Amino acid sequence: MALGLGALAAAFVLPKVAVAATDDAIAAFTGGASVGQGGITLTAPEIAENGNTVPIEVSAPGAEAIMVLAAGNPNPDVATFNFGPLSGAQSASTRIRLAETQDVVAIARMGDGSFVEARQEVKVTIGGCGG
């Protein structure tokens, strides 16, 4: 019975911890500034058969940096891509690991100092972080 209660508590506590970690990472990246929509494109599959290797692509013309987060992972920080004035394009693609079905979040810091966000839910059939 104790194991069942422990599992039930973990099911309710861990998602809140992951959301708090995601919110903290966003606040650190934006310095607490408001985040708008549009101007950034996040491409990820709707369904990932294996969470160990999920392809994503982000693009935000005019961005200085793009941060990618996996909101449901134990450690949500995935990557931050920085672009200099000589960058040919402000885009990047990579493969990430997702523990479970969750939102992938991309936030771009634009050249004018504003921030924009894109989110996409990815359904994971086999978790990539030990799940």
UniProtKB/TrEMBL annotation:
- Record bears the keyword Signal: yes
Which positions fall inside the Ig-like SoxY domain? 28-129
Q: Give the superkingdom in one word.
A: Bacteria
Signal sequence, start to end: 1-20
Quick check: keyword Signal in the entry?
Answer: yes
Query: Which UniProt key words apply to this protein?
Result: Signal
Under the heading InterPro entries, the entry gives: SoxY, SoxY_sf, Sulphur_oxidation_SoxY
Q: Name one Pfam family in it.
A: SoxY
- What name does UniProt use for this protein? Sulfur oxidation protein SoxY
Q: Which organism is it from?
A: Roseivivax isoporae LMG 25204
